[in-house]
Amino acid sequence: MYDVIVIGSGFGGAIPAYRLAAAGCRVVLLERGPYLTAQDFRHDLRLGTFTRIVDAIKGDGLTVIAGNCVGGSSVVYYGASLRAPSFAFDRTGGSGRRLWPAAISRSTLDPYYDRVERVLPVSRQSWSDVSYAGGLFAAACHHAGHTANPIPVAVDLNRCTNCNWMLSGCKFDAKRSLLLNYIPAAVNAGAEIRPLHQVELISRAALSTSRYRVTYTKLSADDYRLPVGTGCLEANTIVLAAGAIGTPVILRRSELLLDSIPDAVGKYLSGNGDRIHAAVMNEAAIKSVLGLHRTAGIGYEAHHIGKAINTMSYDYLDPALPEFGRFGLQQIALPALTNLLAGWPDWFGVNKKSLRSLWRSWLTLLAMTEDGNPGYLNDVPVTGSFVRLAQGFGTGTFTYQPDSHTRAGWATADDKLRTIIEHDALGMTHPWSDATSGSVTAHPLGTCRLGDDPAISALTSDHELRGHPGLYVTDAAAIPAALTVNPSLTVAALAERASERILGGL
Question: Average pLDDT for residues 343-348, to the nearest whole number?
Answer without folding.
Answer: 57
